[in-house]
Amino acid sequence: MSVRVDGERLLRELAELAEFGRDPAGGLTRTSFSAADGQARAWYAAKCEEAGLEVRLDGLGNIVAGLPGGDDEPAVWSGSHLDTVPCGGAFDGALGAVAALECVRRLAETGRRSRRPVRAVVFSDEEGNYHHLLGSTAIRRGFSESELAAMTGRDGDRLVDALEGWAWARGSRTGTRVDPARVHAFVELHIEQGPRLEQHSVRIGVVTSIVGLGGGLVRFHGRADHAGTTPMDARGDALLAAARFIGAMPDLARSSGPASVITTGRVRVQPGGSNQVPELAEVSLDFRDPSRDRVAAMLEAIDRTAQEAAAAYGVTAEWDADEIVDPVPLDEGIREIIRARATDLGLSSTDIPSGAGHDSQNMALLAPTAMIFVPSRDGRSHVPVEYTTDEDAIAGADVLLATLAELADS
Ligand code: HGY
Ligand code: MN
Ligand code: MN
Questions:
Q1: Together in a domain, 141 and 67
Q2: 126 alpha carbon, closest ligand
Q3: pLDDT at 293
Q4: For helices 390-408 and 94-109, angle between their N-to-C axes, nearest 10 degrees
Q5: Which among 264, 288, 335, 407 has the fewest CB atoms less than 10 Å away?
Q6: Please, is 366 exposed, middle or buried when counting C-beta atoms within 10 Å of its C-beta (0-12, 13-18, 19+)?
Q7: pLDDT tens-digit profile of 59-69?
Q8: How far apart are CA 158 and CA 150, in angstroms?
């Protein structure tokens, strides 16, 4: 019988990890490079070291852990992220990171000698507080010092300041790119974050592709004035222009395509007094579609809509767009292995596209890559009630382990 994970240990460690970053407002807030993220990294590194694994860090805090040696053969990687969205759940990222460690540990415990090493990976800032998919983008292509210096978080803080004294980074933060020749394959276990598996009572999702995504900030610049003495037709109210812009987003998504989505998750207003006409309104954008062309078209349409809204209120608008993250198809060969191993384990499986972005999107540009989904209760995620059953978490980890074991000898 194929080797299986230690389910008790997997669940215990998921519960331990969920203690880092508990938010009084509910759920978990483990923002990248925060104290809570640092506690989670320290915990993860200690678990790796307890298992006899060598822990390597790069200049932006990505972790790669595995048995010492074996660097001459391209390695099989598996992993995910430990950072969360504000008031997020205990499974997004965490399941894939803990399951990867469990798989590497189980392969070591069984004394199994395979052709190539298997390594557990934790990517920094997957949730993009400073840059979407920061850690895996750094592994794929690396960042220049000027790019890093320009990055700010949702609280307006600079990435370079957050990295000052950050204990979980080693070496140059511009020298993070990994030679594709070093990675044989990458597989990520992740919760579905949608309703499909649960609705169709399927245990395992074999991910076919990952959506393309764009992001950035639109800043409306008006003029601060006294709320009582400034006539309505003499104002440069940045927030009114932003409100008109935000209200136009649903129609923009609908006109883009049936699978297009746009989210304005955050608005920052300055100066912020209730008796002051707003001079700055900064709106965050997250927009996605399975087609890169549609993402690019939305990027252009967002700019046009921002300019129109600004003109309507006599203010100006600037669109500070992030680079588009391409949609990616996932590797058919590894998907076949996942399906076969799920069947061996008596688990139903189905093909499923991912509407969520993942580090696998970057890894797919480096090496053959695939993802395994397990069901999310009520399809909810990025919320405190995010949940996956013990049985499904263990089943997903068992499929991951069997897949990694096969890839390690391929
Ligand atoms: O936003 C996403 O799709 C992912 O959770 N970072
Ligand atoms: Mn995730
Ligand atoms: Mn997420």
A1: yes
A2: 1
A3: 97
A4: 50
A5: 264
A6: buried
A7: 999 999 999 88
A8: 7
Q: Is residue 2 part of a domain?
A: no
Q: Which of 82, 85, 130 for a ligand 1 pocket mutation test, highest count of atoms within 8 Å of Cβ?
A: 85
Q: Among 304, 321, 338, give the residue marking a domain's end.
A: 321
Residues 397 and 372 both lie in one domain: yes
CA distances 389 to 73, 168, 198, 386, 403, Å, are 36, 31, 11, 10, 21
Q: Which of 321, 348, 382 is the C-terminal boundary of a domain? A: 321
Which residue segment(s) compose the domain that 54 sits in?
A: 7-211+327-409
Q: Which residues contact 197 (CB under 8 A, 6 or more apart)?
A: 203, 204, 205, 350, 352, 373, 374, 375, 376
Ligand with the closest atom to the CA of 355: 1
Which residues in the chain show pLDDT less than 50? Answer: none
Measured distance CA(364)–CA(367) in Å, rounded: 5
How many residues does this entry show for the chain? 410
pLDDT at 70: 80
Counting atoms of ligand 1 from 1, which one is nearest the CA of 127? Answer: 6
Cis peptide before 271 (omega within 30 of 0): yes
Identify which ligand lies nearest to the alpha carbon of 129.
1
Q: Model pTM?
A: 0.95
Tokens 């100066």 label which residue?
A: 271
Q: What integer pLDDT is reported at residue 372 of this predicted model?
A: 99
For residues 113 and 56, membership in a common domain is answered with yes
Burial of residue 217 (CB within 10 Å: 0-12, 13-18, 19+) is: middle
128 Cα nearest atom in ligand 1:
6
Summarize pLDDT for 117-171 with one digit per residue, the tens.
999 999 999 999 999 899 999 999 999 999 999 999 988 899 999 999 899 999 9
Q: Look up residue 260 and give its amino acid.
A: S
pLDDT at residue 112 in the model: 83
Q: For ligand 1, atom 4, which residue shows the shortest CA distance?
A: 357
pLDDT of amino acid 1: 56
State how many domains the chain has.
2
Is the CB of residue 357 below 6 angstroms from any atom belonging to ligand 1? Answer: yes
- Among 87, 123, 127, say which to mutate for ligand 1: greatest number of ligand atoms within 8 Å of CB: 127
Statement to judge: residues 138 and 96 lie in one domain: yes
Can you tell me which atom of ligand 1 is nearest the CA of 133? 6
CA 307 / ligand 2 centre spacing (Å): 33
